[in-house]
Amino acid sequence: MFFALIFILSATFKIHSQTVVYDSISKQKVALIDVRKTYERVINKGYASIEMFEYLGNYYYKDKDFQKSKLYFDMLFKKYKVSQISQNSIELYKTL
């Protein structure tokens, strides 16, 4: 309930892949980060992890962007062993 009240009483500003929320009760800034955009930038710089590829593959699958979902799942399965990948990601990849 408290968190809902904070978001109702706050002003929101978009900055790149971050949203800065000014809490009207405590007058503090809170940054909400767009994880999808952040992970994509990190992967484009050459750094990656299983969690990043799985998150992006699952995100785009749920968003019905199957082309991007397949792209990230392909990267995941090329770079890591199947035993390291979650069962949920394996099942979603099979449907693509």
Give the SSE map.
Layout: H1 2-8, E1 11-15, E2 18-22, E3 29-33, H2 35-44, H3 50-62, H4 66-79, H5 87-95
Antiparallel strand pairs: 1-2, 2-3
Helix pairs in contact: 2-3, 3-4
Q: Can you describe what's shown?
A:
The chain has 96 residues and is an alpha+beta fold. 55% of the residues lie in helices and 16% in strands. It has helices at residues 2-8, 35-44, 50-62, 66-79, 87-95; strands spanning 11-15, 18-22, 29-33. β1 (11-15) and β2 form a beta hairpin. It is elongated. The protein starts with a helix and ends with a helix. The relative contact order is 0.11.
What's the quick description here?
By secondary structure, this protein is an alpha+beta fold. The chain is built from five helices and three strands, in the order H-E-E-E-H-H-H-H.
Largest sheet: 3 strands, antiparallel
Which residues form runs of ≥5 with pLDDT under 50? 1-15
Classify the helix fraction into a percent range.
55-70%
Order of helices and strands, N to C?
HEEEHHHH
Question: Main attributes?
Answer:
alpha+beta, three-stranded antiparallel β-sheet, 55% helix, 16% strand
